[in-house]
C-alpha cells in the first residue's frame, strides 16, 4: 500500500529497522550518513536502494530538513555507488517514489538504482 508522505517519520518502518540492524540486509556501501543495499525483490539485474541514515520520509522532507552537507554527500554517494557497480557506461536509472501517486511503500527516503539490462521506457503508459 502506498504511504502518505506528509505523515511524521515512523521510526518503526522497515528501513529504520534495517538501519538499527534489526533486519539483515545485503549491503553494497555504508558510511556515517548513507546505506546502500540490494532490494529484496529486485526488478532488474542490479537493484540497489540508497538511503540517508537520517530520519527523512521523502525527497521533499530531506530537501527541507537535511543539512547541506548531508544532501551533497547523499547525491555524491549515489553517483559513486553507480560508478562502483560499473553502471556508468552501460547506463542505469535512478528513481525515488514519493507518496500515494508515486506509489511509495516504505516511509524512509530511498533512491532506487536500477541497471544491468536495457530498462525500457521511463513509465508504463496508461
Ligand atoms: P517503494 O515502493 O517504497 O519505492 O519501494 C520500496 C522497496 O523496498 C521495494 O522495492 C521493496 O522490494 C523493498 N523492500 C521492502 N522491504 C524490504 C526489506 O526488508 N529488505 C530489502 N532489502 N528491501 C525491501
From TrEMBL:
Motif (Histidine triad motif): 108-112
Keyword terms, alphabetized: Hydrolase
Catalytic site positions: 110 (tele-amp-histidine intermediate)
One of the record's GO molecular function terms: hydrolase activity
Source species, domain of life: Bacteria
InterPro entries attached to this UniProt entry: Histidine_triad_CS (IPR019808), Histidine_triad_HIT (IPR001310), HIT-like (IPR011146), HIT-like_sf (IPR036265)
SUPFAM superfamilies: HIT-like
Gene3D superfamilies linked to this entry: HIT-like (3.30.428.10)
Keyword Hydrolase: yes
CDD domains in the record: PKCI_related
Boundaries of every HIT domain copy: 14-124
Matching PANTHER family: HISTIDINE TRIAD HIT PROTEIN
Protein name: Diadenosine tetraphosphate (Ap4A) HIT family hydrolase
Amino acid at each position: 500500500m502506498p504511504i502518505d508522505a506528509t505523515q511524521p517519520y515512523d521510526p518503526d518502518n522497515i528501513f529504520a529497522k534495517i538501519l538499527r540492524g534489526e533486519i539483515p540486509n545485503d549491503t553494497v556501501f555504508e558510511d556515517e550518513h548513507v546505506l546502500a543495499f540490494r532490494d529484496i525483490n529486485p526488478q532488474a539485474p542490479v537493484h540497489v536502494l540508497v538511503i540517508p541514515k537520517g530520519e527523512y520520509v521523502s525527497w521533499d522532507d530531506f530537501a527541507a530538513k537535511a543539512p547541506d552537507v548531508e544532501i551533497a554527500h547523499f547525491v555524491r554517494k549515489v553517483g559513486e555507488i553507480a560508478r562502483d557497480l560499473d553502471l556508468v557506461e552501460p547506463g542505469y536509472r535512478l528513481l525515488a517514489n514519493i507518496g500515494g501517486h508515486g506509489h511509495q511503500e516504505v516511509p524512509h527516503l530511498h533512491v532506487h538504482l536500477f541497471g544491468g539490462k536495457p530498462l525500457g521506457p521511463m513509465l508504463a503508459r496508461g
